Amino acid sequence: MKTLPVLPPICCGPEALPLPVEAREELAVRFKALADPTRVAIVNRLSAADEVCVCELNTAFELSQPTISHHLKILREAGLVDSTRRGTWAYYRLVPEAIESLRGALGG
Amino acid sequence: MKTLPVLPPICCGPEALPLPVEAREELAVRFKALADPTRVAIVNRLSAADEVCVCELNTAFELSQPTISHHLKILREAGLVDSTRRGTWAYYRLVPEAIESLRGALGG
DNA sequence: TCCTTTCATCGACGTTCTTCGATACAGCGA
DNA sequence: TCGCTGTATCGAAGAACGTCGATGAAAGGA
């Protein structure tokens, strides 16, 4: 279990401090994970349920199974999403704190 | 003056509706604008001041002037940033409502 | 044991992105 | 008018990305 690095706020207002280089990169990785329409849709779908079977995602999008798997990997590595395997099936769920921390990076 | 399209929430919780295709794409464009460390740093810098001269950005980063100009264009086209020209100099400022709407897309 | 199903990984292809030097353009001072 | 300075755009090179078919690995049923 990887711990989530703290995401300092990018903005807004005079209290926003200059970001160190690592923070810029970490934030860019997270935003990059959301920088694709399919991944936005996956996150949206995951947010509506407790967990979602990969098999369901595979039929929900008009993309090949390896492509969906690839997108899930990117979301996983960005920490936005989490998975469990039960028997043959894999289930993914959102990591709400990760979304929340991204939200926090956009100010508040 | 282009009006900002409304960004529906991606998440979180049961009230999150399935995103139409155009909304996925619009959101992906905005997140893509923040999917680069340099652009994150630019936004961060803009958020700390009312407006910033391009000349200042050019010296603040170890990147060529055309590269900075390119990143500013991407931020501009995503609606996150706004520019004015005064004489020879160009000044950029953040569009707080655009950031706020992105924040809103990450839930409330 | 063998076959089927589910998911992840690999390798490849075309597209998009980041970056740069060169160039164009506009404002200003001499 | 001429040259200088600050920005934007162009064109190209290399890296990263999205996508797929083929393959691999693990679980379950016959």
Structural account:
2 copies of one chain form a homodimer. In chain A, a hairpin with a 2-residue loop joins strand 2 (81-86) and strand 3 (89-94). Chain A has 5 helices and 3 strands, in the order ααβααββα. By secondary structure, chain A is of the alpha+beta class. The first copy, chain A, is elongated, with a radius of gyration of 15 Å. The longest helix of chain A is centred in the first third of the chain and has 13 residues, at 21-33. Residues 1-5 of chain A have low confidence and may be disordered. Chain A has helices at 21-33, 37-47, 54-60, 65-77, 96-105; strands at 52-53, 81-86, 89-94. Chain A binds chain B through residues 10-14, 16-19, 21, 24-25, 27-28, 31-32, 34-41, 43-48, 94, 96, 99-100, 102-103, 106-108, and chain B through 10-14, 16-19, 21, 24-25, 27-28, 31-32, 34-41, 43-48, 94, 96, 99-100, 102-103, 106-107. The structure holds a DNA duplex (30 and 30 nucleotides).
Oligomer: homodimer
Which descriptor suits the 3D outline of chain A? elongated
Give the ordered list of helices and strands of chain A. Answer: HHEHHEEH
Query: Residue-averaged pLDDT of chain A, rounded?
Result: 90
The helix fraction of chain A, in percent, is 40-55%
Largest sheet of chain A: 3 strands, antiparallel
**Count of strand segments of chain A:** 3
Radius of gyration of chain A: 15 Å
Distance between the termini of chain A: 28 Å
Which pair of protein chains has the largest interface, and what are the residue counts? A-B, 39 and 38 residues
